[in-house]
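task queued by scheduler; priority normal; single chain, no ligands, no partner chains; default sampling; output format set to structure tokens
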Amino acid sequence: MARKIGPKHKLCRKYGEKLCDSAKCPLTKRPYPPGQHGPSKKRPKVSGYGKQLLEKQKVKRIYGILERQFSNYVAEASKKVGDTSKILLNYLESRLDNVVYRAGLASSRAAARQMVNHGHITVDGQKVDIASYRVKVGQAIAASTISKSKKLFEGIGEKLQKVEAPSWLSVDSKTVGAKVLNAPTVENPNFNPKVIIEFYSR
């Protein structure tokens, strides 16, 4: 399975925005571009095309996906009737690794993806090890029975009780899982999906 490797926080510092889930993101201490001249370097003016490209790169970094898969999401969303930007956002939020992260079972999307790939997560009682699996409304995700006894999920019940899950997701600390109540949405995403659609519509 293809995945992005290399510096994890370079884009955070390059764009001046926290695009990761880490509490130790270097941007909090070094809010300037990376490199030797970063502290004294002014961020350049960005063209219209550059802004569109920036939004696309941000989303790919946030959700941890590569270009081919992301462009496929955009193409699929464009064929649907309705607001393409909202449909795209729905596809991204419906990914199994993202649902696991939103439910509080993992501290980051990267950790959630690894959790799914290693077979620790079930959907409606069946093991699913594909991070891009699209969770549907009404489906329930949970840690597998065997995995619950492992150190990975130690103290997870107490952690889930403190999770502030989105309105479309119901978290159950007793079953160590969650259920998708309705279509996933993001009230204030830190990117502009409409600009991304414009980028691919050129």
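post-processing summary
- The chain has two domains: 10-91+189-200, 95-180.
- The mean pLDDT is 85.
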